[in-house]
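Here is a tokenized protein:
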Amino acid sequence: MSRSKKSKHSQVPICSQKSRTSNKAIQNETATAIASQVNDFINISQTIIFFWNVKASWFVEYVSDNISMFGYSKELFESGELNYSDIIHPEDYKRVCQELTEYTKSCSDQFMQTYRILTADKTVCWIECRTNIKYDEHHKATHFLSSLVNITDAKNMELQLKQSEEKFRTISENSPTGIFIYTDRIIYVNRALVAMSGYSTKELYEMKIWDLVVKPMRQQVKQMALRRLKGEKFPHQNSDAQDITKKNGMKDNSATTETIKYDGGYAGLGTLTDVTDIKKTKARLKLLAKAMEQTDELVRITDKNGIMTYVNDAFVAHSGYKHIELLDHPSNILKSGQHDDTFYKKLWETLLAGKTYSNVLANKKKDGQIYYEELTISPMFDEHHRIENFVATGKDITQRIKMEQKLKQYATTDELTNLSNRRRGNEILDIEIDRFHRYQSNFAVLMIDIDHFKLVNDTYGHDIGDQVLQQLSKVLSLHIRKSDALMRWGGEEFLIVAVHVNHAEIVSFSSKLNTAVRSYTFDIKNNITVSIGATLCQKNDTKASLLKRVDKALYRAKKEGRDRVVFI
């Protein structure tokens, strides 16, 4: 009995232990599954997690897989090949470090920073970084857990908005036209309107917009203004108005007003201009705009840094880009890669010296198509003769350039064999002779003639004779080096200019050519052989003396029985 009870009681803790072990395993599995799900969630999210050490240039101990969004692999960081500091933009790095030091000194647990990083392909991205600090028992920072969110689009929009506001203010304050914004009172006026009205800025900000017009018009202006403040919009038009100045004078002006959104409500934005001046200005602008938009010329205006501020419709249509893709973008968006840095350096040196630049540029459309543009770029100056803008006008001359290239090819290429012709051969000889006399750069000339070629023409006809010439040109092309030049010298004669060779090498090379031709099976029953004359360029040689000597060597080869090589 007692043994049985003892046995029964001894099993209870064993069962309990197994149960606890099983529960713990389940908990571990659950925790692992949850951790895996969390990790998966992070890696498919737009938030990138970095866990990095404050020491050793911010060594990364962990980074989430979605770092691939920036073109990096996590192995690059976790292996130590890249540290977190390596991807921070050099211009922001010092500030990031300073802020980091300040946050750790103040024992902050968490802080947020906005700065730029460089992706793997060196693209600049703006990020919003929230960082938690891990401290040791001495309350010294040891690690940082940072979550990064790409805010490039938002930042760019913010910068564009800021630039737009700055442009508006710059344009407004330098405009000869009076510009104003009003709600229940006037909230903005530019310098021109202050000068036109005779009131100070402070005085105007205490007035309502209808206080500036003569009494007969005041009620009408007030009603329109109040309707605008409720968000109502009206057809855009100029309105003639008689405005009063501080000294009770009157001016005939032309006013334009728009309803705009402002501070959660609506406001009126308007301009006020002397009628005479605005008519003259409008007439000039209308004429200029019409000329710019109707011309077939490709017109764009850039600032002094090459950023496009205007493009006409012809340029938009021709380039394939939209207006938004061109404006506020650098003009080098058109670069084709066919001009080197020296070319563009000379272009900018000319322009920055205040001179007009004209040349033919190979540019590239949005679809990658290369076109040739006859371009003239002229600097525009301000009243102090400082460069303010550049105006570029161009014309697509691609068809003309291609025609010139074809004509040049026809002028230097043998139509039957597609080899260089005698004219091009003479140019090559002139170049090599000049190089020989300047730098003692050895070269040889081989003159090759088809043996009994008249018999081929008489037996098979000139069409077959032409085929033999084409086949021979292919045989010779297969056995020369890339540095050698092969050309059809005339009739059944070919010329080879072989550079950087000595006597033994040219004799061996000539023999190989002779054998290659003899071994080739042409499309006729008769065997084709060639006679070859060869010579090296010598001191005091001219082109005439060199050709005379190689012709003499060829003559000897034919006289001595053909199908051979003679070197002189």
